[in-house]
Amino acid sequence: MTFGAALARDYEVQIRDPATNAVLETVFSFTTGDPAITPVGDTGWQSHTADLSTFGGQTVRLTFREQIPESFTGPAQIEFDAITLFYEPADDYYRIEANAGDPLTIEVTILSQGQGKFFNNLEASAELLDPSGVVVASASQTGQTNFTLDHTALQTGTYSVRLFTDNDTSGEYVLAVNGHTGLPPLFEVIATAPDHGDLFAELSQPAQMVLNLSSSVLVASVESADLTIDGTPVTGVTIVDSDTLSFDLPLLTEGIHNATIAAGALTNLQNTPLEAFASSFTFDFTAPRIIDSSIQDGDIVTAGPLTYTVQFDEELDSTNLDVTDMRLVGFLSGTHTPTQFSYDSGTSRLTLQYENLPEDRFTLILISDSWPMPISLLTNFQALLQKASTKAENPKPPIWPWPSKKTGFGASPTFWL
């Protein structure tokens, strides 16, 4: 890097998002330094390497950037040479189910070596690991076309074959295992989204059901009808990766829904049939309703300490339940905060305690979470408490006693304090 300008130049190697050109990471930078020391700014060749593994699987832009501080300057020059992208090949692992006494033979064949065949420079080695992870046999190519590992199993369990290269070569090979008598591992669903027992509100229900399998699935065995919801086959499926399937869910109504896959509907690459799968999840579009109240519409309540209890028809999410969810607002006296509250998840009963309430007209509001309202959170419920005085000796009779009817949003039973 050579130039004759007065101010130092800054040089950066950046990883950028190709869509937005935003800088994702600066992987290298340096400055030409004090012009008094390097008056012509000749830095010589700068060598550096950067680890880009954190961007694996992404498309990124590699940018070489020089920052010139002056708005006008003399000639400058940057030279690049030997820019190389390289990766370290990952080791390949294979699983073998063996019983004690099995004579295991692992054969590795390097394909297409020799005159007239396609180029394959793979130089491979292999290790056999027992169920505890100890290497019990090893072999390497060492100039040969093929090589073999032999071992008599001393334990029953899962053995592993590790195939690797020590010199960054790559190429094609075939690995064959003989002599093992262990049963293959089960091919089964190991995780789902939604998970078994999940609850969803009306605006949060999923559009897909994603299944993670215990091993790679045979693509030819995959059909959308493999998954049924409430006995009806779904109509769409996407293969996300070798062991992940995403099935399109139909439009579902409120209630419990059962997802099933019949045994053997799928097979893996070892031709092992899938174990039967069953799961269920719930769509709950109806917010909790009040089914019991310690104060009924038309009741007259004595001023002073007040204990109010209310019961809901389903369990509430109490993880973020606090006094800010309960507002008792007096027409004249303002807002009153409960001195104490408790929630019994077993009975879904909420108890509020107030001290020294004056005579007043009150509105009691139990606030739901922000919309869209998650399932099993407090429903909006407004109760109107009116003042009892000499001018109100004939209070309005109750419209209904709870729990004969449930509240909905905005219900307003009235009583006097």
Can you tell me about this structure?
With 417 residues, the chain is mostly beta strands. 0% of the residues lie in helices and 40% in strands. The chain starts with a strand and ends with a strand. A hairpin with a 5-residue loop joins strand 8 and strand 9. It is built from no helices and 30 strands. It has a 5-stranded mixed beta sheet with strand order 14-21-20-16-17, with no helix packed on it. Strands 25-24-28-29-30 form a 5-stranded mixed beta sheet, with no helix packed on it. It has a 4-stranded antiparallel beta sheet with strand order 6-11-8-9, with no helix packed on it.
Distance between the termini: 86 Å
Low-confidence stretches: 1-5, 370-405, 408-415
Number of strands: 30
Q: How many distinct helices? A: 0
Most strands sheet: 5 strands, mixed
Amount of helix: under 10%
Structural class: mainly beta
Summarize the structure.
With 417 residues, the chain is mainly β. The protein has no helices and 30 strands. The N terminus and C terminus are likely disordered.
From the structure above, extract its key features.
single chain; 417 residues; mainly beta; 5-stranded mixed beta sheet; flat; disordered C terminus
Secondary-structure topology with pairs:
Blueprint: E1 2-3, E2 10-16, E3 23-31, E4 61-67, E5 76-77, E6 92-98, E7 103-110, E8 125-129, E9 135-140, E10 146-152, E11 157-164, E12 173-178, E13 189-193, E14 199-200, E15 208-213, E16 227-229, E17 232-233, E18 237-241, E19 244-248, E20 255-261, E21 277-283, E22 290-293, E23 304-312, E24 326-330, E25 334-336, E26 340-344, E27 349-357, E28 362-366, E29 381-386, E30 414-416
Parallel strand pairs: 14-21, 29-30
Antiparallel strand pairs: 1-5, 2-3, 2-4, 6-11, 7-10, 7-12, 8-9, 8-11, 13-15, 15-19, 16-17, 16-20, 18-19, 20-21, 22-23, 23-27, 24-25, 24-28, 26-27, 28-29
